[in-house]
Here is the input.
Amino acid sequence: AEDGIRDDLVTGVQTCALPIYLSDSTLLKVLPSSIDRFSPNQIAQLPSNFFLQLDQNIVQKLNRSQIQVLDPKQIASIPTDALPILGPHLKSTQLKELSREKVHSLPIAFFKSYPHLFTALNFYQISLLNQSEVDILGDSIIDSWISQSHASPEIASIISNGLLIQLSNKSQRFLIPNLSSNQLTALGPDKLLQFQYKLRSE
Here is the structure.
């Protein structure tokens, strides 16, 4: 049981092959500082409000297998300042419960470093970002976001003119229904004529 753990709250040695399930009374006694000693199976049993107690020092002790079993509600409960530490190991599906307030509180550099996490978010989750923050993400990440099935042309409201003209033709065309008159002017008459022709040809 080289990879196992011993704990006075758990009987025997825990291994991935032999999961030990914790009772509700035992879960209530788990200390946040001991979470890194638990197997992925045990961590998955912890209630989401347990994760409200985690800090950066505790979170950085978690390994990839422990992080990737966390469900979206557990992830959403982790304090904002500790969440970026998980970035290298997070799966895009784990962020679907993040509130738009928490998304807005995260450093924009976090999403710049892990673009797959940003592109997994829906428009409501990113709606508190401002144009300057979206500019930092850049055209490549925004193009990728627009290509997702959850994409909404409402994102046009937080895209600056400068970023708009850098986006791909496909993205610009997607945004057309929600562009302001100022944004349409920024695209220019030639681009608008091009999109109008394509729209009529379908």
